[in-house]
Structures are given as C-alpha cells and as structure tokens.
Amino acid sequence: MVIKIGLIVNPIAGMGGRVGLKGTDGVLEKAIKLGATPVSPIKIKEMLKKFTEIFSNDNTIKWYTTKGIMGSDYLDSIGIKNYEIVYKPKTSNTNSTDTKKTCKIFYNKKVDLILFCGGDGTARNIFEIIGNKIPILGIPSGVKMHSGAFGINTSATAKILNDFVKKNLTIGDIEIMDLDEDLYRKGEWNIRLFGVAKGIVEPTYIQVGKSTYDTISNGEIKDELYEHIMEEMENHTEVLYLFGPGGTIDYIAHKLNLDNTLLGIDAVYNKKIIGKDLNEIKLLNLLAKYQKAKLILSPIGAQGFILGRGNLQLSPKVVKKIGIDNIIVLSTPSKLKNTPVIRVDTGDRELDKQFAELDYILVVTGYRFSRVIKIQTNNF
Fold first, then answer.
1. What predicted TM-score, i.e. pTM, was given to this entire model?
2. Which of 125, 234, 297, 354 lies 20 to 30 Å from 193 when distance is taken between CA atoms?
3. 273-316 pLDDT, tens per residue?
4. Residue 309 DSSP code
5. Where are the domains of the chain?
6. Could you give phi then psi for residue 142, rounded to 5 degrees?
C-alpha cells in the first residue's frame, strides 16, 4: 500500500528569531534588513536526509508538494523522485494563501499525512483548511512552536515519519496553539488554543504544548533562585550576564530591580542592564567586548527546551562564544517535575554534539541546590 504524504514548507519561518523580532509575521522586510537568513531550507533538508537514511523503500511513499521553495526544491536536493507537484506559487514571495491553497489540494488528493516545515503560524494556516481531517506533523523551524504538532528536532521528526509510514504509531488529538506576535514583541505572553487537530501521539519525540505554572505557589522557590543568582553575580563582578526569556528569569530580574525584557535577551553587568532585547549581532558585539560571560536560561514548560525555542538570537555563534560550561539553567522543582529531559536544538550539529557528550546538565532548583537532568539533542 502506498502512503501519500503532502509536503509543504514555509520558506520564511524562523527568520525573525535570530535578529530578535520574535517572529516573522508582518515584519519580513525588517528581518531581512537586519540580516535574517532563511531557516526552513536547512531544517527540511536535514530532516529529509535523515529520513532517507533510515527509510530506504521510497516506492511505498508518494509525495505531493508545491513547486520550488515551498517543496520540490528540497525533494530534488535529496534525490527523492516519486513526487507530484500539485501547486505552483505565482511568485517567489510566498505567503499563507499559498499554504492554504496547497492544503485544499492535499485534502482532495486524500493524503495520509501533511508534513510541514514552519512554526505555529504555519500549523494554524494548515488547521484552518484541514481541521482534524488529516494528521499533521511539523518540522520545527519557526520562532513560535508551542503546538503539539512538532517533532522536538529534525532527527526526531524523521524517526516519527519513519514509524508513521510503517504504521507503528497512533493518531490522536493535538493542540494547535498560537501567540500574538505583536504583543509578544511588546513583552506580553498572549498564547491561546487555536484548535484541536489530528497528529501523531509519541511521547519521546513529539513535544507537548507549553505548560504554565502558578507564580505565587512557586514564590518561595523563585526567591531562592534569586538569592542564588544574586550571590553568583556578587562573586563574579567581572562577568557579563545574559538573561534569557521566561517567567522565572523575569521574576529574578525584577527582584534585582532590573527593567528587563520578559521575552528577549538582556545583558547585565555589575547588576545594571547594558543591553535590552538583543539580537544575534548585538550579542556578538557585546561578547567581543567582554572577556567573560555567562548565560542564564530556564526550560520552556514541559517541552524542556533551553535552546532552539523562543530564543533564536542565541545562535550557535553566540553560544560557542559564551561556552556551554558558562550556561546556568534555572528551574523550579514543580516545573522540573514535568520536564523529564533538558532539550537543545541549536541548529548546529557540532554544537549539539557537544551538549550530547555532556549527557547530563546541572539545573539550579534553589539556593545552592541543583539537580542533574538528562540532555536530549538532535544527535540520537
């Protein structure tokens, strides 16, 4: 039996992340002016290459896709021949309309699965047309990825697709989430459930939706985390500290009387902010100026990501400049209870390998108290 797979790529997904725009919706031109480059072409090629390595019987799959940068270019680059172009975008400046038109054709073709490369916005566009009629699987390449459609990285997505084709996985309900990018850029976290789609149920390689935790109930623990960071900064006055995004770090920053950016990357030196909401270039400029730097991060909800989700400004160049030994990971115990592994997806195979070789990472869970947590990267 031939498995029909619809492939669709959002070629601009994730471009706003590295330049600090927290998304690409409505700001593509600005992202390009800031030096943003496409992310999706790299991710889709990685995933397809991995898939062809573990699944050799290409005749059992019939691919349906769009022409050019939304699909066929990547199948060609990997050497996949058994595909049909079902839609041709009118221009190279593709948009959500092209995605939706393609999905209508996928529905008429009765594909068994829609494989897409993008973020939450792409998942939402697909869901608007498909609803819960066809299962979807996402290759993560956006800035916002809170939906339950995504593999945790390209290797994981390839393995999921392999198991799906071999009929080893279960189809179930998944949440399609989306974040208001305009409010996100202003530091407001306005995420909502957009709908319930069909997806692949796989607890190891599929990310779950973001969990939120009660700030008040964790107040005492967060105070301990603040005391830990306060002591760290007092003992290392020569160090530049980069504060990552998220509620836990935001709490600590406010306790330090810092006017930080909730969802951005801020630079702190001698307990004063010297750079706010920094993009990759600004981070690299600061790191060239200061000899010693440390990066403070907290995992995203139950997904467990510390790099590769919501903080693409922290590019491989930035992380390498800081050094993985200079990353401080913080978490409340209640949050960590729902985070079985710490996940890293930097987009750089060698850097991911360095994290994988650590095997475990120390997570600060209180004042002078830490736990050792397993690391999961794109190198399985």
1. 0.62
2. 297
3. 999 999 999 999 999 999 999 999 999 766 788 998 878 899 99
4. S
5. 3-201, 219-376
6. -90, -175
